[in-house]
Every structure is written in C-alpha cells, then in structure tokens.
Design goal:
324 residues, alpha/beta, 12 helices
C-alpha cells in the first residue's frame, strides 16, 4: 500500500508492457495504481488518456497526520499528469476537493456496478448463524467494535448471538485474541476468504462495522442479493443505501452498533425481507454494471476530446484501455 523500492521495478515492467500494448487509455485504480498510471513512461509515440479512480486509500488517513499531508501533496503533484478523474462515489470526490483542492481536470462520478446475476436470491443454509462479517481483518474495518457490540449484547441484554468472520488480514491474530478476551470464543467462528454468496447464505444478517470506506463492493453485492444488513455511516455507504441511509449507525460506537444489530435480528422476518428487497431494487436502478461501463467509456472519450491535437486528428482514436 505504501511507497516501496519495488515500485521502481514495477514501473519499469509496466512501461515495457505499455509500449507493447500501445493502449489509448491508462486507467489506474487506487492510490498505488493511480501512481503507476500517471507516472509510467510510455515513449514519444504514445499519448494515452491517463485516468484515475481513487478507492479511499491515502484519502482515508487521519486528516492532519504526517502521512495524510504527504500523500495529499503527492496527489496535487500527480494532478498535472491526470486527464480525467473517474471517482467511484460523491464521497471520495468530496474528499479530493477538501484535501487536494479544486482541479481544472475533467471529473466524472462513475459508481461501481453490479452484474445481473448478482441479484439472484440467496438460499439460506438451514444452520445459518445470526451474523456474518466479510472483509479484511484489520482494525480500520471496525471489527473490534463489532466484537465489543456482541459482548455488550450478552452483558446488558443477555443475548448470545453467533458471528461468522470471513476474511484475512494483518490483524487476524490480534482479533482472535480479542475474541477470547471478551469470552466470545464459542460464538465467533473465523474462516478464510470465500465466495461472497456462499458466505452470505450462512447467516441471517451481514454487519459492516467499518470506520472508513469509499464505495465498497461487498455492500453492493450483499444489497443486490437482498441480504439484510447493519452498516456504519461512513464514506460512500449512504450513497448505496439511498432512502434507507437513515438506518445507518455512527462508526466506532459499540453501543449504537449493538442496538442496530438487536433491532435487525429481532425484526419481523417479513418486514426484514421487504426492507432488503427494497434496497436490492434501488441498487438495480442505480448501480448496474452496464451503466458503470457506459459512464467510464464516456469519461475516456471526453478526456480524449480535450487533449491537445484531438481537433487535428493527431491523437489516435480510442478507447482501448489498460486497467491496473
């Protein structure tokens, strides 16, 4: 995630690939991908559109911290090498304006999209647990807050809820130790990454306790499949929930998260299904993969029309793209 000496060899290898492929678009995703897309040497014969989609990354560092200031300065410098910003959410576009500043470069919002088959209903396993968490095992995802919420439910309400934790990450050992310390070892099951629909089928409610996000696919996929959810109100998540956003809970608040989990678990099953179906319908209208592709291609084309030489035809037509 952070700068590393190996980035130089990666840029060299990428430059060789770009010269062979001769793409008309270089699209970098995330802070590191965006760095590569905008810095990679392409040779004098190529003039690709350089597109950038931040995914949170450096924008999620604590504002005012040394790393945040350093990375925002790097973003300002790299703006000069950017033809079009294709932000995946209004939230991350706002973070860019707030911490990097306004830009004269082309800016588009291109929401992440979901394929039609991901709206197929999920068949719930007969031995389904109460809750499931799916994602990286690191503190920024708010997993310790989820564990504390479960401990509160047992301590204050006498409720023992079961949780399936699906994922891997740098804090896995620390999180396992935390579960044991809270006396939750019998109620929390850890499993490695697996297909999301298989994981969703094994619990009644998915919980997203994140402290920071951009526009997470895991929520889009779960919402499309009409999985009941409890989530924190961070990043672009309210854009996904739309009219249902008032039900989101504040981040890093175990008491609020515990209350939201209890309400969702105890909710009338038919009402819970209806709410999930309503969110799925909203996702189908606003976050389709076809719309994502159309908006991305339109952004490429608009950026190419703005490039010097486009009016004379010296810029080759596109948009054959190389994404990384």
């Amino acid at each position: 995630r952070n700068p590393h000496p190996s980035d130089l060899s990666a840029l060299a290898a990428l430059s060789r690939l770009v010269r062979r492929a001769a793409p008309t678009v270089l699209h970098g995703h995330g802070s590191k991908g965006g760095l590569f897309a905008r810095l990679v040497p392409v040779g004098p014969a190529l003039r690709p559109v350089r597109a950038y989609t931040p995914h949170g990354g450096s924008f999620n560092y604590r504002p005012g911290s040394t790393l945040h200031r350093l990375y925002m300065q790097a973003e300002r410098v790299l703006t000069a090498r950017t033809d079009v910003f294709l932000f995946e959410s209004d939230f991350i576009a706002g973070r860019y304006r707030a911490y990097v500043g306004p830009t004269s470069r082309l800016v588009r919002i291109v929401h992440n999209g979901i394929a039609t088959e991901e709206f197929a209903p999920i068949t719930r396993a007969p031995d389904a647990l109460d809750l499931v968490y799916i994602g990286e095992l690191r503190e920024a995802k708010g997993v310790p807050v989820l564990f504390e919420a479960l401990a509160r439910l047992r301590r204050e309400h006498g409720r023992r809820l079961t949780l399936l934790v699906v994922g891997s990450g740098p804090d896995e050992n620390t999180l396992r130790t935390r579960v044991a310390a809270l006396g939750l070892a019998e109620d929390v099951r850890f499993e490695p990454p697996q297909p999301i629909r298989a994981a969703l089928s094994r619990a009644r409610v998915m919980v997203v306790p994140s402290l920071a996000e951009s526009l997470p696919y895991v929520i889009l996929e779960a919402a499309a499949a009409a999985q009941p959810m409890v989530s924190t109100d961070v990043g672009g998540i309210p854009e996904i929930f739309g009219p249902a956003a008032p039900a989101l809970v504040p981040p890093n608040d175990a008491a609020a998260l515990a209350g939201a989990i209890l309400r969702k678990v105890d909710q009338d099953p038919e009402a819970r299904r209806d709410e999930a179906a309503g969110l799925s319908a909203f996702i189908r209208c606003r976050f389709s993969m076809d719309q994502m592709a159309e908006d991305g291609l339109a952004g490429y084309a608009a950026a190419r029309r703005r490039m010097p030489g486009a009016e004379t035809g010296r810029v080759p037509p596109g948009p054959d793209s190389l994404d990384f």
